[in-house]
Amino acid sequence: MGVIALVSLVLFACLGALTRAFAPAGWELMLVGAAASLRDAPAGTVLAALNAAGELQVWGPAVVTLGMFALLTRRTAAGVLILLTLVADLVSGITKLLVERPRPDGATILGLLGEESFAYPSGHVVRAAALVGVLMWLALPRRWRVLGALGAALAAGALMGLARVALGVHWPTDALGGAALGVGWFAATAALVPRARHRIRM
User: Fold this and answer.
1) What residues does 114 pair with on adjacent strands?
2) Is the separation of the CB atoms in 104 and 170 below 8 Å?
3) Cβ(70)–Cβ(82) under 8 Å?
4) 131 domain residue, yes or no
5) CA distance to 79, 137, 193, 200, per residue, from 70 (Å)
6) Which domain holds residue 49?
7) Of the residues 26, 95, 119, 174, which has the fewest C-beta atoms closer than 10 A?
8) Which CATH number do you get for residue 6?
9) Distance CA 185, CA 124 (A)
């Protein structure tokens, strides 16, 4: 897990440097335009639900509830691992202030502290990848744990990234960076909290 964490976090840092230094590439403009058509397609309802699930006001209480349940049932390491995903969201917010990348067409979203205008990385994608990765890491049998948790985290990040790009509030590289941070954070905390590798039964 340490190698996965290192590779993911290096990728996250490199993408952050690139998005700060350069304007969105032509392929990103094209993908944002193409994804926008999904809002009015049958898939639009699913994408809207994903966006809602990734809001901090929804995701945060869910993380706290799961983490506290694990702690109260004496699954201390699992509870710590779940609650540490909250820190990934803090890292995401700090990175946005450092990179200062504008959203597509100057879009803004309403966050807990008011309007947010910076795009990199996608906090929704960070939240999805980190939490799903942790939960699968805790739930899967040892033989399937690494591949299963990694695959689930990447899938969750990809779906949430599609939802955010389709909504027109993120560039594709914001989603990629969010997935890299989410996966890297989950992998790093899983490596640093070895006792959490025991399966959690809920």
Assistant:
1) 111
2) yes
3) yes
4) yes
5) 5, 14, 14, 8
6) 2-197
7) 26
8) 1.20.144
9) 14
